[in-house]
Amino acid sequence: MKYTFISPRKKSILSPEMLLLFIFFGITLSMLFMTYAFLLFKEHRFSQDKEESIRQLSELSISQDEMQERIRFIKEEKQLAERIYTQNTVLKDSISNLFDLVPQRITLSEAKLLKNGLILYGITPNQDIYNFMLQAPLRSIFTSTYSSFFPAENGWLRFVSTNYIDENDLGKKNLKQKVNEDLNNEN
Amino acid sequence: MLSKLFESLYLKVFVNIIVTRSHTIVYIETSNKKGILEHVEEIFKTTTINDKMKMFIDSYTQESPFNYISFLDKSEFQGAAPTCSNKELSKFFDVSSSKYLCYLNKWAYYTLNSDLQLLKKEYSTIGVDFIFSPFTILAKFFKDKIGKTSAMYILIEDGRISLGVFDNSQLLYADYMLLKQNEVIDDLLEDDTSSDYEVLDFDGGIDLDNLDTDIDMGELDDFGDIEDLDTFDDMEDFSEIKDQHVEEVITEDNSLLTMSDTEIFGEDYERFLLIQSSVNHFYKDDKFESIFIERVFIADSIDGGADLKKYLEEEMFLNVVVRRIELTAELCELARSELK
Fold first, then answer.
1. Is there a single domain that holds both residue A108 and residue A176?
2. Chain A contact for B61, CB < 8 A?
3. 3-state secondary structure string, A109-156?
């Protein structure tokens, strides 16, 4: 406003009718665009969900394989455990049987289990008791048995009995060895 | 930014309206960014808006939304003051009821607020964008002189005079005057109307009873001296005088005596009287800083004030320069400058 007493009216390129028409078309177009945008968004979401499902499927598949692998491993472990348990039971029975072999009058001070043999240390009142009551059953089990005696302070005899099994009886020996290895692994 | 772009694409239509005493001049100019495409002027025999005028204006304004309607302020209570200071303005006019604007921070022009509202209301059917003061037009029209010459500047419109005394572009005194013949014309118009009604009331007959018989019989008695009239011999001497008188009448006929010229002659004298009294007021009132007026620049929009120049020169010994002004074009120019 430089020289005029009043400010000019606001000029608009649109007449009220045109303005109404433009508003109507504007609203219609905006609704169409919004619908289109909504559909695009939904499509995008759907494709995202699809990708996610595929990824999850793949992960599940991998997970399933891992689970199968673990199951297989656990089964193997179970088999091994069962085997060890069985072998332990067998060993326990063997040791129990071994100790059952020792008569009341003979006292064992040490026993060594070897790959293919057994060394026993102990005290016996006399050599006959030893020969009849302990050496006889040992000879029935082992292939070769060697015994050596030396006197103790109280008049009794200390003995060392060394017993070995032949190579032919490896099956039995291997079983013992495996049992020992498994025992070590467990520890 | 966007509106500026649209504005440059569309045509601009400037409608300039000047209301005179008996008619309205509408000047329309259509332009684009390259220049003026069309201009047209139409005069309507109305002092307010009528259907014909509205249709004429609408036919152009509908061409473009960027149409601007300008008015030359016709308020009786407008003027200009030689200061721009709020405190001093109240010495010259009622600031509370007026709208005023400063011109180059040197002087102010004002008009009555209610008259602005009235004008806007009167022309609300077409709308009003700009209302300009005649003092602005006067200052713009004589901007080449106002800065250099100390003089009196006058804008003559039909029935209105805007007068300003400038000293090196500083306004010293301003006056806005209406010709009294305005009122006379209005009165005459009213009289004509009333006489028409009397004729209608005449009703084809004469009431003989109420006939005015009071005639001054003394005048008739003068006919008694009819015998004292000159003889035919005396008439021969008289013929010389008669010829001389006829010659005078013929001379006057050739120069002035058309009806409209007589009106202008009378109006010019009235203008002269108004200017003379305004100058007296300027000299006598201590409120105004006084200078001695030697020169007068007249912007003449009615193209008929030759006698005014003569009166001013002969009676007031002023050096008068008259310039023809196309008010509508100047108004349009102002409207255009408002948009820059």
1. yes
2. no
3. EEEEECCCEEEEEEEECCHHHHHHHHHHHHHHHCCEEEEEEEECCCCC
Query: Are A129 and A175 contained in the same domain?
Result: yes
In this prediction, residue A178 carries a pLDDT of: 60
Chain A residues 3-42 with CB within 8 Å of chain B = 3-6, 8-9, 11-15
Predicted TM-score (pTM) of the model is: 0.58
Q: Please give the residue range of the domain that contains residue A138.
A: 104-182
Query: Could you report the per-residue pLDDT of B1-29, keeping only the tens digit for each?
Result: 667 777 778 899 999 999 998 899 999 99
Same domain as A115, residue A79:
no
Q: Is residue B102 part of a domain?
A: no
Q: State the count of interchain CB pairs (< 8 A) between A and B.
A: 51
Q: Is residue A14 in some structural domain? A: no
Residue B197 belongs to a domain: yes
Question: What share of chain B in percent tops pLDDT 90?
Answer: 56
Mutating which of A2, A5, A12, A19 best tests the B interface, going by the most B Cβ atoms within 10 A?
A5
Residues of B in contact with A3 (CB under 8 A): 101, 103, 132-133, 136, 334, 337-338
Q: Residue B84 carries which DSSP code?
A: -
- Rounded Cα distance between B46 and B53, Å, is 9
| ipTM rounded to 2 decimals | 0.74
- Does residue B25 lie within any of the structural domains? no
Residue B103 near chain A (CB below 8 Å)? yes
Using a CB-CB cut-off of 8 Å, the residues of chain B touching A8 are 68, 129-130, 338
Domain that holds residue B246: 181-254
**Overall number of domains in chain A:** 2
What is the DSSP code (8-state) at residue B130?
E
Domain identity same for A113 and A150:
yes
Q: Which residue of B128, B137, B138 to mutate against A (max A Cβ within 10 Å)? A: B128
Nearest to B99 among A5, A11, A14 (CB): A5
Q: What is the CATH number of the domain that holds A129?
A: 3.30.1360
* Å between B129 CA and nearest CA of chain A: 4
Q: What is the pLDDT of residues B169-221, one digit of tens each?
A: 899 999 999 987 655 455 544 444 443 433 334 343 344 444 444 444 444 44
**DSSP letters of B276-293?**
HHHHHHHHH-TTSPP---
Residue at which a domain ends, from A101, A128, A154: A101
Nearest to B300 by CA among B105, B160, B144: B160
* Model pLDDT, residue B339: 86
CA distances from A116 to A40, A62, A95, A102 (A): 80, 47, 15, 20
In sequence order, what are the beta bridge partners of B157?
B160
Residues A123 and A144 in one domain: yes
- Please state the domain count of chain B: 1
pLDDT band at A137 (very low <50, low <70, confident <90, very high): confident
